[in-house]
Amino acid sequence: MRFLLHGSRSYNKAFCFSSNTINREKLWMLSFSTTSQEGRKSSEFLIHGKQKRFLADLSLTQQQIKNSRREFQLLLDNKLSRGRFPLHNNRKPWTSPLVQQTKRKEKLRVAVLVSKAALQFIHGITLHSEYTVPEEVKAAGFQICADELGSIVEGHDVKKLKVHGGIDGIANKLCTSTTNGLVASEDRLKCRQEIYGINKFTEIPVRSFWVFVWEALQDMTLIILAVCAFVSLIVGISTEGWPKGAHDGLGIAASILLVVFVTATSDYRQSLQFKDLDKEKKKISIQVTRDGFRQKMSIYDLLPGDIVHLSIGDQVPADGLFVSGFSVLIDESSLTGESEPVVVNKENPFLLSGTKVQDGSCIMLVTTVGMRTQWGKLMATLSEGGDDETPLQVKLNGVATIIGKIGLFFAVVTFAVLAKGLISHKILDGSYLSWSGDDALELLEFFAIAVTIVVVAVPEGLPLAVTLSLAFAMKKMMNDKALVRHLAACETMGSATSICSDKTGTLTTNHMTVVKACICGDIKEVRNPEMVSSMGSQLPDVVVKILLQSIFNNTGGEVVINQYGKLEILGTPTETALLEFALSLGGDFQAVRQETKLVKVEPFNSTKKRMGVVIQLPRGELRAHSKGASEIILAACDKVLDPAGNAVPLDEAAVRHLNNIIESFASEALRTLCLAYTEIANNFSAEDQIPVKGYTCIGIVGIKDPVRPGVKESVAICRSAGITVRMVTGDNINTAKAIARECGILTADGIAIEGPEFRNKTPEEMNDLIPKLQVMARSSPLDKHTLVKHLRTILNEVVAVTGDGTNDAPALHEADIGLAMGIAGTEVAKESADVIILDDNFSTIVTVARWGRSVYINIQKFVQFQLTVNVVALVVNFSSACLTGNAPLTAVQLLWVNMIMDTLGALALATEPPNEGLMKRAPVGRNGNFISNIMWRNILGQAFYQFIVIWYLQTEGKGLFQLEGPDSDLILNTLIFNSFVFCQVFNEISSREMEKIDVFHGILENYVFLAVITSTIIFQFVIVQFLGDFASTTPLTFKQWLFTVFIGFLGMPIAAAIKTIPVGSK
């Protein structure tokens, strides 16, 4: 066997394989080796080209297989002789020995790879025209099995497809119809599922709770504390016996378990919540024909034999075959890595799951579903990763690391000071050579205190607070009709300074109706079917016929009879409005469509702002119909229909008149569309472009799309929040300005501009224009992308962008936050977006911004609270150890405080719902400091108060409470511990507001916060009164309880006084 590889002119090197090509050949070899023996027998050697896949078997000995990068010539008549690999090159090879050696190795490696695959194939190949149907498939009433269907589509096997009778043959063998779809009886569908499987991928099972427990136990500081607990148990029991000697060890162990179980529970709940949200993300509906009725269906319900309708922006939901369609381009980059789209038609009818429709529309016969599809097999090799850390989590992890290092330094010094005190004491006693169990326990306690200082210092609650806050916000936003696809979008939206919004469907209701029409030069109001019918009776029959022909043929929508026997209009709101208008004129969709034959369809394109069709009339003549933006279609016309229905030349006066009509429609906030037609030569073919000039204007229609309720108020809220709202639309500038004024977007000093004018501006002119720009009309996707990029990079704004079409994907991707429309949005747009607005409503975008700010503020509140506890705990234990030789807060007590401030504190403060005041402050923007001066003021003020109180108790506490006797130290330490905890409880309440003095507003509505505070107080009472042996505490009197609670409460008025100290906002 010999392979000759010719370098093409564009590639000067003789042998140039891209990594994609090599990977695909590896993938082919892998699939070849894993295919069953029967599959291999009927397989054919597959060579991948860049744009097309070709098949070559033993019958194609001399066939050259070409593509844009290289040419393969497969010669199967000779074997590849050892050491010989003939290569033809147009240029001299490099002379560098190292380079030549590398090239030789690469050539040899790939030659071996390809020849090995080919030889492996030859050993397994047997050409068959006969196919044996498995018995279980035959018994179920089908004539083809899932593996055979998979090999046809995945292998792009044209020959095998022909053997099975083409697409119609496959449809018959699947017991389906390419026009009416499946028979949707329960038992037949169940039988089909058993034979061919369901359209779901095998999901990675949810990790169990105990896995999270195990992960929580991996924390190094907890492991060290566990070792301390174990040694404490051994030493304590051996010296003091059971159970007295076990108290300290069991106390630390119980604290560790409490921390572990609370952390694990929190993480487990988040994983379940993200799983639910992930399911929401994957809820995709598709248009399917079953039982002769077209209906919306979840992609998970698809079965082989289903007839699926695909259009621009749709994701191909399963592997299948092209039945019919126009101008279909498929983006297969998700599977092959190749960026150039693949043309799909009758000659190349293979559609693969997971790819996207880049252009055109088609009907597809589903052949393979679920894990049998190429996408399913690919998914099986991938393990799903968790959510990436958000920018805020990364920032806070950095803060946590720095604080942890500071804590480690303090811990080492604290342990050294405490240990020195013990050793000095023993030296003075002369007992430094004799160490008792008590001495060992004391040293171990010092070590545990040092480790616990590290535990307290490391604010592991920071990432937890971010996750909790984001997860809480995601769940609430889901209730508010916003599906967050990427966690980072929650926090980023809180910093947004600019929103670039679509008009249609976002600011307006997207429920369109034709309310005015100018046909044959006559303007008519057509607000209801009776008015439309009246207008139709006054028009010449020939005009009505051409108008219906234009609307019914040149459309992306369809009129179908649903399962209830009623007419149903499917399509975009614009198409629906036009079809409704045509039906009111007395048109019959199916009858008009059957009179003519579609020759070519060019779907609507937001760059060209038009769509067109070529149809063959009953007598064989060809006619092109075009519709789209009024100015663009009118500019392509040189004739117009007069009141008698005759095509007359379009002079300057007529053009001026029609332009005035367009402007008058637009000034009433109507969306205008122009319809036109032209006769074309009979030698037109489907490969030719539809003409762009020489049309006859049929008429202009004005479509009303009312502004959504609440949009004006939402825009006003954005303005007060410092967020600039800009409208970017493809509509006429007058329509855009009218809607923008109605929404409150366009102000007296604002600028409205058209896309073509905008794109011709120099960068300097754009710098002056964009800050004042409020409306961009007749914009292309590139204009939108340019605007967003300029706002982000030059003006340093945080930009949110809305989009619904496939062409919006670049702008959505460029923006800081991409917002896709859930109803009108295509799958490509949703894939590029960070947040999906499920109800397509601008007010929901404002809700997302409010929640984003809430997340940001909540995490700031928590950080303020936690840093206060960190500072106090570190300073108190460190200073006390240095000055008195002992630490007032034991390891168990510090672990409990760590629990209050980390997990419970995060739960309480990170789940505060947004308040109205959030949208009255300026946005943080891109460069805002996370820990602001206001936060530092509150942290240092509160920490100073707590430190003074605890230090005073430590030095003067015995005299203040008249404590005497052997238990005085224990009682004093209990009082200090209780005061410290209640300082944190009341500081948590003060932290609900960073600037406002009233911290109780809305507290009764926040059940999570109340539950956390209540449970903290109850647990504290139990620890002090009943768990003394474990927590090194002793029961306090009522008076002592009152005093410690009062010390904590006193922190609130002090916090309020601190908030009155003015500081800069940065």
Automatic annotation (TrEMBL):
Task: Describe the location of the Cation-transporting P-type ATPase N-terminal domain by residue ranges.
Answer: 164-232
- Which residue numbers delimit the Cation-transporting P-type ATPase C-terminal domain? 887-1060
Q: Does the keyword Transmembrane apply?
A: yes
Residues spanning the membrane: 209-237, 249-268, 402-423, 443-473, 934-954, 970-987, 1007-1028, 1040-1058
Which cellular compartments is it found in?
Membrane
- UniProt-listed Enzyme Commission number(s): 7.2.2.10
Q: What is its main location?
A: membrane
| Any GO MF annotation of the entry | metal ion binding
What are the record's GO terms for cellular component?
plasma membrane
Keyword Transport listed: yes
Q: How does it sit in the membrane?
A: Multi-pass membrane protein
Query: Per UniProt, which keywords does this protein have?
Result: ATP-binding, Calcium, Calcium transport, Calmodulin-binding, Ion transport, Magnesium, Membrane, Metal-binding, Nucleotide-binding, Translocase, Transmembrane, Transmembrane helix, Transport
Q: Which CDD domains match?
A: P-type_ATPase_Ca_PMCA-like
Ranges where the P-type ATPase A domain occurs: 284-381
Catalytic activity annotation: Ca(2+)(in) + ATP + H2O = Ca(2+)(out) + ADP + phosphate + H(+)
Q: Which family does it belong to?
A: Belongs to the cation transport ATPase (P-type) (TC 3.A.3) family. Type IIB subfamily.
**Name of this chain's protein:** Calcium-transporting ATPase
Q: Which organism is it from?
A: Phoenix dactylifera (Date palm)
What gene does this protein come from?
LOC103705297
